[in-house]
Amino acid sequence: xxxxxxxxxxxxxxxxxREGRCMQxxxxxxxxxxxxxxAYCAAVxxxxxxxxxxxxxxxxxxxxxxxxxxxxDFKPDxxxxxxxxxxxxxxxxxxxxxxxxxxxxxxxxxxxxxTALPEVCFNEDxxxxxxxxxEPEYIVCSLASAIKNGTNFSEVDGIxxxxxxxxxxxxxxxxxxxxxxxxxxxxxxxxxxxYTMPFTNKKFLLVASGRGCPYPCTYCADHVYYGKKMxxxxxxxxxxxxxxxxxxxGIEDFLFWSEGFTLMPSVAKSFAQEIISRxxxxxxxxxxxxxxxxxELLHLFKKAGCTAIGYGVxxxxxxxxxxxxxxxxxxxxxxxxxxxxxxxxxxxAHTVIGLLGDSRKTINETVNFLIDLDVEFTQFYCAVPxxxxxxxxxxxxxxxxxxxxxxxxxxxxxxxxxxxxSAEEIMxxxxxAYRKFYxxxxxxxxxxxxxxxxxxxxxxKSMVGDFLKWF
Length: 471
What we know:
The protein is α/β, with parallel strands linked by helices. The protein contains 18 helices and 17 strands. A hairpin with a 2-residue loop joins strand 2 (16-19) and strand 3 (22-25).
């Protein structure tokens, strides 16, 4: 049994990040993330004796012709594609390329888009065989087993498929109860040299620390994929993984992949203490809610190697935060940012332009709020009604979505014409926000001071080029 795991080719040259709810072009961070979902699938499959191949067409710059050659050489029984909303049609066209090589190869897609809208996947590509709904690792493994043994697909939980012209939705698959049961991602299948951090250009890996989020934010689609129940890996198991990567690959930089690394502060503290007790010298970045941190935690993080924390600030206006059910206050944002900076950790503020209730006035207030906070970096995203979100449901019902082109459903664009604020105006305000925040002398000087070597200068020049091209 052979399974080919594929991060599809770039859509018209747009290098897309495809991990859970993070569906954005690489230019937004000037970095490509390691394909952790596919690598986890590969690890679980190999544990069951399945032969696997993983190709990331994005970093390896493989086009559809090159992918067809890989398919021809590997001769898989099943091909699994990571598909996201902004590149949905292009990603799905990979099925055509695979079937062109051999129509007998079974094809499946994973990701939030297919989980939320499985029927749309089949309607767009009649050749697609399966949609994997939800956490993919064990579902893909069960599917591969069914294909190998010729058993009935009705016994595979978590998949949708066509039978007799009808779309069948099997019952949902239960999320992975104990994340420690998952083997480490099969990162030996990727080229580590292709995944590097901004500024330092050092190799890094995406590492999962937990899954699930109980918060009801209206713009977030994470619950579609990972559910609302929080599940965390044990600190010992997580640090075992980090130690393995440092010893095996010489990698010392990590980005923790979870909805909120600090959603359970006691677990986060234990993790930091585990790193410190082992004297593991690494650098890492995580995300957090502003209401989940305190002084003790942040100083532990700094001692354990944390260099930056990304906070979901979303808006600098309390009324907007309340409308999108964020569940935080402006004072909590101010306090978390101040404590983080005091601990010597950089702050990245994630902000959304064009949320429900936003106006030119509130967006300008948000930008001024971030400038006053003096955070090191900020991202201004457009509010996107991703399938599965409450925003998608409301926007669909009220007719706010102005296009059916999935390529526009990414955080660089707005597709929402809401009362008092058009999509075109949202995008203009977003550009103004970036200019106002980043083109200040203070910000430019602080950024240039980060450069420590000629190599980092070269990387920075490339980053600026990528950012301006994207911008």
